[in-house]
Amino acid sequence: MGLRRHVGKTSYEAKLREVYEDIAPISIDHGVMEKTTADVFVIPGQFPWSDVGSWHAVFELRRDEQDGEGNLVDGDAIVLNCKNVHVQSSSDRLIGCIGLRDITIVDTADSLLVCHRDASERVRECVNLIKEKGFEDLV
Fold it and tell me: N or C: lower Cβ tally within 10 Å for the chain?
């Protein structure tokens, strides 16, 4: 039964979750636009846009929140003699950063990512490797 039949009914949320879990994580250009043979219509708009597809993009978007050395810290962390470091932490532990340059650190309750800021777009490769190694429950 398709999702449309559930719109406006109490079953909608559960069905939406079920359908969403089966959707492949693919960009609209690859998943839809490359496959369509129908006419596509576009409405011009004037609005700011950033394709936030990496931690580097998040770092760039939040320039106004960075300290004098270009560090951006969300969560419990200290930065000492660091430049252009992005710490994103939702864990309960304190992160100490000393003498780092152009590093992204993402710390969650069950995993930790540390990478050069320019390599943050390769996170998908890391996720695929994690799955290959049998740690699917962590992604």
Answer: N
- Measured CA to CA in angstroms, residue 77 lies from 46, 63, 68, 81, 83 at distances of 38, 18, 16, 13, 14
User: What sign results for the dihedral spanned by CA atoms 111, 56, 115, 81?
Assistant: negative
The DSSP element (H or E) to which 78 belongs, if any, is: strand 77-80
HEC states along 16-53? HHHHHHCCCCCCHHHHHHCCCCCCCCCCCCCCCCCCCC
**Cross-sheet strand order for the sheet of 112-116:** 72-74, 86-89, 103-107, 112-116
Residue 79's φ and ψ, nearest 5 degrees, are -125, 125
Per-residue pLDDT of the chain (139 residues; tens, 9 = 90+): 578 888 888 988 888 888 888 888 788 788 888 888 888 888 888 887 766 778 888 899 999 999 999 999 999 999 999 999 999 999 989 999 999 999 999 999 888 999 998 887 788 888 889 889 988 877 7
> d(Cα 79, Cα 6) in Å, to the nearest integer?
50
